């Protein structure tokens, strides 16, 4: 089969890791007789530099017109001026919104060979297999009003945390559906003791939970959840939560996997184009050195194969190649090893 995949390498280490992921996808295409047609576009700081906009209408249209989008990372000190009228991150948010990808799946698994790479005690890490589902197109990131002004001679800024019931419902429903094929447990995370939007979130999750009699549902306040992620991470199965809570909890959860460089993500909507990106950022401190870990992006490509192209066998082949390489002891710098980005990808390619 022929597929069109838009690559958005972005900024910092983005181009380095996307390049290796595209090689891995090509290796899969060769082995399983597919053709992946890549079209590369600018998004983020590089797009501000070239077009004066972090996401142009043309790039968004090209993304919508493909089977899937693979993104590296955006941002960097060059574009960090708080007074700038556009920022790389705005492009990313506009892309998520534009593609309607409300569900961000961030699986966190601990490879047995990486248990010692995490600062947590090994006995806590046994059996950790969490799927964090972060709401991605609502909440604090997008709520209006969002602005800054001078009021009575004082600087004033506001962000708004808002949700409609249908926005909560569609992601919580997906959490229940995905829990069916797992350990059948959903933990809904909110701050219902303080926030009105969280009380709506909890009520909605509870109502839906009645439709899913086989799935265990519990609720945790986000502060408690952040503690349990460290004290008892193996107790979680599927976690579903608001956009910003999910952003924070997944950086925390990445520590379980030994390195943030390991973690992939998939962003999905009702139908349409999926967006796939590693959860790490642009890492300006190591950009251009060729030492970034490509695994987060390569595993994101596996999710792309699974969720957008419906190529489950191919997705598993790629995941198994990564597993085998980690088991063999291959390590990039983030995991204390000597391999470059390209050498790590070479190892993975050998296992495809
Ligand atoms: C992430 C990142 C982004 C986010 C930034 C770069 C806007 O931290 O994907 O987790 O906050 O969503
Ligand atoms: Mg984040």
Poorly predicted runs are none
CATH architecture label name of the largest domain = 3-Layer(aba) Sandwich
So what's the overall shape? globular
Query: Looking at CATH, which topology of the largest domain would you report?
Result: Isopropylmalate Dehydrogenase
Distance between the termini: 19 Å
Count of individual helical segments: 12
The major β-sheet equals:
10 strands, mixed
- Tell me the strand percentage band: 15-25%
Write out the distinct hetero groups bound to the structure: 3-isopropylmalic acid, magnesium ion
User: What is the average per-residue confidence, as pLDDT, rounded to a whole number?
Assistant: 97
- Count up the domains: 2
Radius of gyration: 20 Å
Helix content: 40-55%
Your description of this structure?
This protein has 352 residues and is an alpha/beta fold. It folds into 2 domains: 1-101 and 265-352, 3-Layer(aba) Sandwich (Isopropylmalate Dehydrogenase); 119-257, Isopropylmalate Dehydrogenase (3-Layer(aba) Sandwich), CATH 3.40.718. 40% of the residues lie in helices and 21% in strands. The chain has helices at residues 14-32, 45-51, 57-64, 88-99, 122-125, 165-180, 196-209, 222-231, 243-254, 295-308, 312-327, 341-350; strands at 2-10, 35-40, 68-73, 103-109, 129-135, 143-151, 154-160, 185-190, 216-221, 238-241, 266-268, 274-276. The strands form 2 sheets. A 10-stranded mixed sheet has the order 2-1-3-12-11-4-5-10-8-9, sandwiched between helices. Strands 6-7 form a two-stranded antiparallel sheet. Strand 8, helix 7 and strand 9 form a beta-alpha-beta unit. Helix 8 packs parallel to helix 9 and helix 11 packs across helix 12. The longest helix has 19 residues, at 14-32. The radius of gyration is 20 Å and the shape is globular. The two termini are 19 Å apart. The model has no long low-confidence stretch (mean pLDDT 97). Magnesium ion (MG) binds next to helix 9.
């Amino acid at each position: 089969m022929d597929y069109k995949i838009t690559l958005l390498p972005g900024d910092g280490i983005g181009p380095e890791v996307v390049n290796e992921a595209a090689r891995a996808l090509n290796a899969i295409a060769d082995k399983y007789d597919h053709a992946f047609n890549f079209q590369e576009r600018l998004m983020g700081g590089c797009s501000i530099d070239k077009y004066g906009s972090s996401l142009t209408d043309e790039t968004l249209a090209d993304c919508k017109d493909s089977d899937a989008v693979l993104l590296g990372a955006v941002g960097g000190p060059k574009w960090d001026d708080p007074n700038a009228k556009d920022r790389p991150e705005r492009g990313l948010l506009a892309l998520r919104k534009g593609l309607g990808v409300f569900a961000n799946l961030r699986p966190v698994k601990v490879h047995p060979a990486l248990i010692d790479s995490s600062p947590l005690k090994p006995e806590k890490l046994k059996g950790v297999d969490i799927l964090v589902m972060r709401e991605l197109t609502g909440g604090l990131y997008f709520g209006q009003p969002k602005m800054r002004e001078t009021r009575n001679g004082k600087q004033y800024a506001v962000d708004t945390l808002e949700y409609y019931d249908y926005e909560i419902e569609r992601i919580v429903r997906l959490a229940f559906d995905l829990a069916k094929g797992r350990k059948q447990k959903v933990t809904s995370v909110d701050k219902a003791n303080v926030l009105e939007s969280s009380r709506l979130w909890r009520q909605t999750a509870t109502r839906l939970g009645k439709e899913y009699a086989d799935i265990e549902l519990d609720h945790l306040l986000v502060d408690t959840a952040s503690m349990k992620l460290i004290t008892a991470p193996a107790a979680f199965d599927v976690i579903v939560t608001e956009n910003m809570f999910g952003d924070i909890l997944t950086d925390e959860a990445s520590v379980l996997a030994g390195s943030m460089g390991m973690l992939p993500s998939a962003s999905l909507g009702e139908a349409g184009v999926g967006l796939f990106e590693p959860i790490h950022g642009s890492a300006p401190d190591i950009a251009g050195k060729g030492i970034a870990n490509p695994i987060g992006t390569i595993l994101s490509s596996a999710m792309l194969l699974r969720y957008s192209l419906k190529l489950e066998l191919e997705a598993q082949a790629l995941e198994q190649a990564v597993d085998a390489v980690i088991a063999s002891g291959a390590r990039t710098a983030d995991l204390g090893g000597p391999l470059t980005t390209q050498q790590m990808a070479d190892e993975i390619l050998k296992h495809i």
